Amino acid sequence: MIYYAFGEHNIVDMPITTDTRTPLHIGMDFNVDPGSAVIGFEHKHGIHIFDELEIFGTDTGEMCREIQQRYPNRRVFAYPDASGAQRRTSSGGITDHVILKNHGFDLRVGSVNPSVKDRIAAVNSTLKKENMRLTVSPKCVKLINAFRKHTYKEGTRQPDKNSGLDHLLDSCGYLINHLYPLKVNTQPVRGHIRRATGHI
């Protein structure tokens, strides 16, 4: 399993605030089949994912409109795939990041994506019961299923992209890696630099 730290402790039926002053935090993966997003809000203990979105045969503009229809008049912080600065999934010819900005979303994204290894490690760090900062609503059945079943390709440390389970997980990974990135401990340990696995 890739997300070995995921368990029943991460599945929480948390009340969802309807206060429009509470911003939404949305991780997004740009695809056409499907376009994917996870939607959450921050609280004092971390972040709670309460909705998921998968649309087939879509583009970024349609994804934005669907989010705004579900949650009108909300401030949105979007954590997209960094490749969206160049990628165009709409017929209008403008980039995915520009489309997000045109819909009023506040982008939180670096110039390049984190490595897959670091992104997975960051998510596992937030899933661990002893330092849990990521919870998921039981209504997010596709995301939960992906956490439980996504594996590496046999004999490798590369996630199996043929499973169809990776899109929502990638969306969640962009969000979590930005909010809770792993940091490098620069103190030498036996002549090496230690990479922290749970400290932020």
Description:
- The protein has 200 residues and is of the alpha/beta class.
- The chain has a single domain, classed as Nucleotidyltransferase, domain 5 (2-Layer Sandwich).
- The protein is 26% helix and 22% strand.
- The strands form 2 sheets. A 6-stranded mixed sheet has the order 5-4-1-2-3-6.
- A hairpin with a 5-residue loop joins strand 1 and strand 2.
- The two termini are 24 Å apart.
Summarize this entry quickly.
The protein is an alpha/beta fold and 200 residues long. It contains five helices and eight strands.
Describe the structure using short key phrases.
two-stranded antiparallel sheet, Nucleotidyltransferase, domain 5, globular, 5 helices, alpha/beta, 200 residues, disordered C terminus, single chain, six-stranded mixed beta sheet
